[in-house]
From TrEMBL:
Residues 17-271 form the Peptidase M14 domain. The active site is at 243 (proton donor/acceptor). It comes from the Bacteria. This is M14 family metallopeptidase. InterPro entries: Peptidase_M14 (IPR000834). Belongs to the peptidase M14 family. Gene3D superfamilies: Zn peptidases. Signal peptide: none annotated. It comes from Gaetbulibacter jejuensis. It holds the Pfam family Peptidase_M14.
Length: 380
């Protein structure tokens, strides 16, 4: 699909009722109820706390794609993008028609509704569902397993969000979007299904390079059979991990949302119109690996107790009154010349102190600091 076409499609497809980071069942039920009749909405199970887990099935094609989002409840960017995709698929666009004619999509918008409501990674039993693929101790894990077995997908999309700490390779480029074709065994074998997933990732990367050049990364492919993606890849189904990351100054993840929309449509269109055999997998290895080289803020050249050091601050996301706030916490006080930041402040060798002339400490919360007696806010 042409990049300008996708941008235009997003402008009319964006679901304006969904925004920022806090998305739970309360935000999506009315949207599900208002989908056109060719979208089948089912309750496919319940969470630990009895919240409904929904699926949306649309399309009549032979190629079957299973997608799930918010397996980690505090990773909502891909959920927003899915509802943007729903809006696109209701249009008369020729690409939308081709996707629905050639593919059948089954989408779980929020797999972990309890985690989504509490804005936590884990479910109500404090279990990471993405480490429960083998033990299957949680009702949400069983819902996904049953859905997988009943639907018999040809492709799986495991949709997540990643922290602001990741760079695309060893560079001062944030990994705004990351992908992975998970390993299916300890040897990380290049099986046909894994190559197919790599080929689809390569196509999405080519599209993204036109809008965020050098800002796409590949997640670590160390094998862990307890992870859902690794398990489904192990079962022979091409599986793609999506990680929605940090676009500059986009802590609401609205810019990233548009890029996920771009990637989803690009991949759907490619699968719909091609017999994907994995032959175009090699360019996958040109995408740089994710590195943990970013902080939210670095105060450079700070006089800390008479020593010139750098101060790294990371935001902690917290749910407050049904919205997400970002609390600045000091992560490191040391020489950080090999790290980058989304915001840099140069203290120019001046003293840097906390409130009431307090000494700054790692793991402490600081809304502001004093640099050479001048108050500097650390909030967004």
């Amino acid at each position: 699909m042409d990049i300008e076409l996708i941008k235009n499609a997003y402008s009319f497809s964006k679901e304006k009722s969904l925004h920022h980071r806090y998305i739970c069942n309360d935000h999506i039920v009315s949207l599900l109820n208002n989908l056109p009749s060719n979208f089948r909405v089912d309750v496919i199970g319940e969470s630990v706390n009895g919240e409904d887990i929904f699926s949306v099935t649309v399309g009549k094609g032979d190629k079957r794609l299973l997608l799930w989002s918010q397996m980690h409840g505090n990773e909502s960017t891909t959920t927003k993008a899915l509802f943007d995709v729903f809006n696109f698929l209701t249009s008369n666009n020729s690409y939308a028609k081709a996707i629905l004619n050639n593919c059948t999509l089954k989408i779980i918008p929020i797999l972990n509704p309890d985690g989504a409501r509490a804005y936590t990674r884990v479910n109500a039993n404090e279990v990471d569902l993405n480490r429960d693929a083998q033990n299957l101790t949680q009702p949400e894990s069983l819902v996904l397993k049953t859905c997988f077995e009943d639907f018999k997908p040809d492709y799986c999309y495991n949709l997540h969000g990643q922290r602001t700490i990741f760079s695309a390779g060893k560079s001062n480029n944030s990994a705004i979007v990351s992908f992975l074709s998970p390993a299916q065994d300890e040897a990380r074998s290049l099986s046909k299904n894994r190559k197919i997933a790599m080929e689809v990732v390569s196509v999405m990367n080519n599209a993204l390079q036109q809008v965020i050049p050098n800002k796409v990364g590949i997640y670590d492919d160390a094998f862990n059979i307890n992870c859902v993606g690794d398990t489904f890849q192990h079962k022979g189904v091409p599986t793609i991990l999506f990680e929605a990351g940090h676009f500059p100054n986009d802590y609401a993840r609205e810019e990233t949302r548009a890029l996920i929309f771009n990637s989803l449509l690009t991949s759907f269109n490619y699968i719909a119109n091609n017999n994907v055999e994995g032959e175009g997998y090699e360019s996958y290895f040109d995408i740089p690996a994710n590195e943990k080289l970013f902080f939210d803020i670095i105060i450079r050249n700070a006089d800390v107790n008479g020593e010139i050091l750098d101060i790294a601050i990371q935001y902690e996301e917290r749910l407050k009154e049904n919205s997400i706030i970002f609390v600045p916490k000091i992560q490191k006080i040391s020489k950080l010349e090999n790290f980058y930041a989304h915001r840099e402040i140069n203290a120019n060798n001046s003293k840097v102190l906390g409130a009431k002339n307090g000494t700054l400490k790692e793991e402490s919360e600081n809304d502001f600091v004093f640099i050479n007696n001048q108050k500097t806010s650390l909030y967004l």
